[in-house]
Amino acid sequence: MQVYLSLQHGIGRPIGLVPTMGALHTGHLSLIAKAKADNTLAVCSIFVNPTQFNDKDDFEKYPSSVDGDIAMLIEAGCDALLLPSVDEMYPMGVTGQKTYDFGYLDTILEGAKRPGHFKGVGQIVGRLLEIVHPEYLYMGQKDYQQCMVVTELLRQMDLDKKVRMVICPTQREADGLAMSSRNRRLTEPQRALAGLIYQCLISIQGKSATDKFEIVKKECLDLLKEKGFEPEYVALADAHNLKLLDEYDAARPMVALIAARIGRIRLIDNMLINEI
Q: Per-residue pLDDT tens for 107-124?
């Protein structure tokens, strides 16, 4: 198992883990920056996990740029990089690793659209927690449902009192597009349209006090389709438990979530509403 250490590592600091699949961008580096700001030993893992892909084509075409990633991590002051192989992460094979039941979270939105995805997420994050033993775990809000799944994983592994889950704000391009490794696969025309997802989220947030969600949802679906997207869902949920909501509720924190394909590229994003 390849582990790279910089001269900046220090004994006695808590470990902060940033799990990634590589093809790093500013969003990933913001997690490293947060780990450094919290005075942790910043550990980044790069592993393209086969068990969380339900689309073989997506797995095979997932971008890889390890040399560039290492250079970015050095520049960002990352203290250690874990770069394991599939055999090292799954010594008993991908079907021999312990799995977890995430219940409701695995039946809606990403769970419904990507069967088996969160089972794979649970497997790989569970393995990383066993190997690294972090006190802090840093993940981005862009993958909101995944953050909730991992929070539940910590509870099931009896680590919720030992590992602090730190959800960091989504980093965005100038037009609002959430930074993602998959953005590299967008063609120029697709990239010019991709910021529309963020515009829809802004609309959902901005109309929460004046319109019915059903109406705003239809407006967003119609606009996405008109511009050539294939929307998979436009949803509103309780921000604490991801219970799906039919209508805005000013009395609770909510999250709006969107998934849509443009060509063969699948994009997801979300935005908090009534954040408390």
A: 999 999 999 999 999 999
- Contacts for 267 with CB less than 8 Å, ≥ 6 apart: 177, 178, 180, 182, 183, 194, 197, 259, 260, 261
Please give the torsion angle defined by the CA atoms of residues 261, 244, 246 and 113, in that order, rounded to the nearest 10 degrees: 30
The CA-based angle 262-238-228, given to 5 degrees, is 15
State the pLDDT at residue 6.
Answer: 53
The first and second tokens of residue 31, run together, are 């997690």
Contact in structure between 177 and 202 (CB atoms under 8 Å): no
What residues are paired with 3 via a beta bridge? Answer: 82
Q: What is the pLDDT of residues 47-68, one digit of tens each?
A: 999 999 988 888 888 989 999 9
**CATH fold of 2-168, please?**
Rossmann fold (3.40.50)
Q: Please state the rounded mean pLDDT for residues 158-177.
A: 98
Pairing between β-strand 254-262 and β-strand 230-238 as defined by DSSP bridges: antiparallel
Residue 254: both structure tokens together: 């909510």
The model's pTM is 0.94
| Cα distances (Å, whole numbers) of residue 239 to 107, 178, 235 | 17, 19, 12
User: What fold is seen in the domain 181-271?
Assistant: Pantoate--beta-alanine Ligase; Chain: A,domain 2 (3.30.1300)
Residues 6+ apart with CB under 8 A from 257: 109, 144, 145, 233, 234, 235, 236, 237, 268, 269, 270
* CA separation for the pair 133, 27 (Å, rounded): 23
At 141, the amino acid letter reads: Q
Q: Which of 25, 28, 117, 133 is catalytic?
A: 28
Task: Report the distance separating Cα 80 and Cα 132, nearest Å.
Answer: 11
Q: Is 117 a catalytic residue?
A: no
At 219, which helix (H) or strand (E)?
A: helix 213-226
